[in-house]
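=== RUN LOG ===
request id: a7f3
mode: sequence -> structure
chains: 1
length: 94
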Amino acid sequence: MTTAILKYMIECEDQFVVQMPKGADVLCVQLQHGWPHIWARVVTDQGHPAARRRFRLVRTGEPLEYSTPGDDDYVGTFQMSNSVVFHLFDRGEE
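=== RESULT ===
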């Protein structure tokens, strides 16, 4: 099994989906060249199935609404150049 750390550029939307290999281990979120990216450890072997991974961005001060506490796993926090601070939560695979 071959693994690598890959990055995925994301948009600053409340909820979004990223296509990545099934079972990817999301490591962090940070800005690179002014754009937010997710870094994840993934299996790169051919034939490893892809999955749609759901994420949620919450601005500082916005209410956190969960269907069940713990549904979302905190990934990290980043600050945009306009001083808006976002907190990324991993909602799991679809």
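=== NOTES ===
The two ends are 23 Å apart (CA to CA).
The chain has one domain: 3-93.
=== END ===
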